[in-house]
Amino acid sequence: MKTKSTLGKRIWLIFILGTISASGPLSIDLYLPALPEMTHDLAAPASLIQMSLSACLLGLALGQLISGPLSDKYGRKKPLMVGFFVFGLVSLLIAMSNSVYLLILLRFIQGLAGASGQVLSRAIASDMFSGSLLTKFYSMLSAVNGIFPVISPVIGGFMIQFVSWKGIFILLAAIGFILVIALWLGVKETLPVENRITGHPLESVVEMFGFLKNSKFVRLILATGLVSGGLFSYISASSFVFQNFFHMSVQNFSLLYALNGIGIAIGSMIPGGLAARFPEITQARFVLATTVLTTILLTLSALFFNNLLVVIVLVFLTVTQFGMLFTLTTSIIMNLSLRNNGGLSALLGLSQNAIGGIMSPLVGVMGSHTYLPMALAIMGCMLLSMLLFFSIHDKSRNQDSFE
After folding, report:
1. Domain count of the chain?
2. Which CATH number does the domain housing residue 334 bear?
3. Residues near 210 by Cβ (< 8 Å), separated by ≥ 6?
């Protein structure tokens, strides 16, 4: 079903897919400004509150292993609608919870449900586009998705001035139910019956894990997941670093976080503009190398001087590079297969969210009274990602060499 599509339909599709793929940013970024308040309200340490972030990320990772393969058998639309209905319902339950342990459990379930938006937005795009067209589409899709990290913390920071953190999850519930209606009315099925996997549903799961037999593919997936680990090291520590260490107000932190969200969106659009001139693999290698350099500078700044402006500039450069890498690695991976794209997207999401979920509490355990743990975590993730990616020796200058 590879198609060029009309401009109007493509814009509408980008808007819808960009919105449903934002289940992760909505679940995470909207409540970030409330983390210090939740620490006090639930009488829990920062590392335990950050565990609610990790639980959601792990749910997002495992949920993709469910919705991705199921979509290869039953189509994309039905799993999306079921997922966002459960997402809305669980968000209401979170708003009624008073236990940090119940919060962590429900956040895990919320992640399981919201995972369908992340995995199937990628699968739908790969159903319709391939090659450089897919890279350009992912660039635009990521730009729309990048709007939510920009506006979410601003909205969250504004809301907690008037309501408790529970009000944020009531808003998430409303968003989930609205998306169910939007999917029902505004998205057509992109996977024809004749292209679906036949037989028992477990067969689609078996085919999905068949990708893991390819060592080059595994290294590529891990390299991509480590980029996400670097991003979530920043996300989980940012509110404590800027509010507690640099003494920023909630409102100023929300604006700074929004600025970095703009950086991610800008970075996401750059590879699409360069796709016709430079292969995605070449772009990815260059950006990985420069990102490692930026994170080394961030770490050195934490060791030798603590200047807020320097940290703001280096973090902005780092997250902008993250945006470029997410577009590039997603395009490289999703161009690998013309079949079982739901499962392929699920493995990509598993790596991103699982490694992100591991890094989030790790940064909290390392300490929240300096930004050195955040800088070290980001640098470590990016260095490992670069080493893994550069260990893949392609014989040609395109994605097919990874098959």
Report:
1. 1
2. 1.20.1250.20
3. none
